[in-house]
Amino acid sequence: MIAWLRNPWARPRALVVVTGAYILWSLLPVALAVMFAFNAGRSRTTWQGFSFRWFTSQVGVFHDPALQSALKHTLLLGVICVAVATPLGVTLALGLQRWRGRGAGTVNTMMLLPLVTPEIVMGVALLLLFLKVFPGLGLGTVPQAIGQVTFTLSYVVVIVRGRLVSIGKEYEEAAADLGAPPHDQILRVVLPLLAPAIVASAAVVFALSIDDFVVTQYLSGAPSTTTVPMLLYASARGAPTPALNAIATVTLVITLATLSLAFLVYRRFAGGGDAAVVAAMEM
Amino acid sequence: MQSRWTWRLLASPGVLWLSVFFLVAFYAVVAVAFGNQDTFSAPVPFWKPWDWNVGYMLAVLRDLWSGGQYLTVFVRTFVFVAVSLALSLLIGYPVAYYAARHVHGRWRGIVLVSLILPFWINYLMRMLAWINLLSPDGWATKVLHWVGIDHVFIWLGLLANEGGWLDGQPSTVILALVYGYVPFLILPLYASLDRIDQRQIEAARDLGAGPFSAFRRVTLPLSVPGILAGSVLVALPMFGDYYTPDLVSASPKTNIIGNQIDELTRQGSEKVTGASLTLVLSAAMLVLMVYYLRTTRAAGAEATAEA
Amino acid sequence: MSEHELQGEVRLEELTKRFGEVAAVDGIDLRMPPGEFFTMLGPSGCGKTTTLRMIAGFERPTSGRIVLDGVDVAQVPAHRRNVNTVFQSYALFPHLDVAGNVAFGLKYRRLSKDDTRKRVAQALELVQLGGFAQRKPGQLSGGQQQRVALARALVLTPRVLLLDEPLGALDARLRKGLQVELKALQAELGITFVFVTHDQEEALTMSDRVAVMNGGRVEQAGSPREVYEEPSTEFVADFLGVSNLLAGHASADGAGSCVLKVGERTFRAAQGATSSRGEVKAMIRPERIVVEQHDTPGDNRLPGLVERAVFLGSSFELHVRVVGGDVLKAFLPNDGTAMPAAEGAAVTLHLPPDALRVLAPSAGPSEVEPADPVASSG
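Structure tokens for the assembled complex are given below, as produced in the milestone run.
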């Protein structure tokens, strides 16, 4: 046993144990929560057999009005957020990367700020903004979407910029050399090369949006603007049924599916899964 | 060599968006904090600096200065964050170290995915999972009881009674914070440890250092920037957290500053005070934010220069 | 390819490019006549690539003129100049296939689809890549990518083709083959090639004229033979081929030569800046030094000891430490006999006056390793 632990060529066994234990501790609770979504009984803590009822029955995710509404609203916000944040972020990344001279540093800082601002500060700020500066919009879907775009924008910029840096200037110069005016350089050369990063950042935005809680809650209005995270928050400590686990499982599956897709796209077209990991860590 | 204005034009929608929905929004906090309340207890922002009413802000500052309620909450927040951060480092560093330096080939992908996965699982779902497990009849409660840890905690004063994990226990909040945030710490640590040149460690070993000594004298110091960056990256959102204590504790005993602000602003009718507290929190966070921005901008500038 | 009018003259007039305080290109004047293979040669950082990029339009000059067939294009953006570039890394668009790459610039000529296809096919034939139209750049070898880059530029019938160290990334054999091909292509097309390299052998092989650059300035411009045999400065002498440098004191002799006092000895130097007086440097090429028996009498001779004798295959290289301490290198052809001199042997070196060249001082930063194969960025 000591020899096994002391083998100088083997990976340090203690670390293997620690890491394995950590991964288990990290993922097992969630796996159990998912498991209970398929519980036959009403308990979230005692296993009572396997069943799909919390998905398919009248009180399940696919039929219960409250759960359906939350799910639909969550996905709606996700789509809006992607549709707005992605183009906004791509153009900002392109402009910022090539911006020379004054203002570049300031804009860069402003772009990075949402990434380091605690969400509650953003929640309060946006709430007050919509109460006092844009009272006409009220609180609800539009402000929620706007709030989500505001904090996901920076992720798009960071991911796209990372890819821009690795692409470099040469292709644009080659295009210019061959007669392409600036807008064509971007349309015909840069954007196609950026496509994997754009797809990846769209997926990231979607995942961030459907998992977002603070900003979405702060800007919510009528009950119809409740999202799945808000539902989870409101019900978690009550005596809810495993339907809660079920709806959480549904969003989990959607998120993971979206991200896996994006990861595969990025890897296939941009060479190297590590690139995606690095991009994810570039924040 | 394009016209300078092409690029500025391209960036302008994004800049405009952030200016309005981030900068102006933040200014709204300032205007409300230095504003007033009308007869319906709704906040009245004072937009012009010379109109500012410092009354509410002063009240908050006075409370902080004289050890009032807000100070207690702030101190508790710092304690929770510090302890959670320390525990997270204790857990996260070995894991990051192992993943960065000892995992190769096929395993590397699997380990990395396992480490990144929590990132993409809804934070609330992860807390929900623990609520289930720590409820009086939950599996974790049973296991902890069976192993006897709950008796140890009770003896240490960290738990009020058996099965009462979710009843306003600071220890539960801290453990929940650790669970929630340690994945966000591991990745920057991993990145930093991954970047350390293996040859430097080999050189140290070659010069006679044993494995632990080489770690202590070469790897550890070289990973310090990563530790700092990761800590800041985790501390910032932790300071603004209110939902974690709310979920696993739901008792005012464990209120941290996020809870306070949330109560005043979203739930309550004291938005002016809430705004003031938000400003105080932001000021406190400013140091951390500036530090983090400096280090990322430096890295970004390097990357751009190499392009 | 349709015939070209013999245009394509490039004139650089007092061209300067500053980056902050540093002048990467410091007021150079060059004329590249139409239809010539013109090379800018120099070490890393000498400004050759910056100059090329200014001609292409990727850098805006700080001051000066770039005159293309009589028109100053210094302020014209790159996409509107009728010059095309072959990049060092080829910069083939990875998302387009070969045909797509070659046809890229043709889109702005408003040709019919048929015409475009024909011209693409012609261009590919020209670079001997006839059947490759559907391939993707990622599937091509370095040499093939090189040719696609060429085709892509040539299909637009530019008056001037700029080449930024295009052969740098290829292995030695491929490089030699392509050097010959490029030269033949240029001769056939008759357009002006402006070629940038740090490899002096390449420059000498391919060019009609060479401009040797250093520190942002042009040290010398002339035919390959001129810059090699008659270097005007120490830098040029050192950069092209191997040179032996001697420091000495020059004084009058007769017309066309001067007396050079090196240490205790006097020599007659009949080449170069023979009207210089005072402290000067003189150089002699290793292949011009005559290695003679020890103690041979006569003028312009120097005794020495062979320090190293290297067999290079087709020649011998002798490192001889002469009186005074310097080491001179001498090349001797391998004529099948044994080593001309062994290590440690005493010899006399004869430096013929008409091979001894007095040099003017260099324009830019001095001493550079000759023929240093460092990857350069200009």
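Residues 272-277 of chain A have pLDDT under 50 and may be disordered. The radius of gyration of chain A is 23 Å. Further analysis is deferred to the final report.
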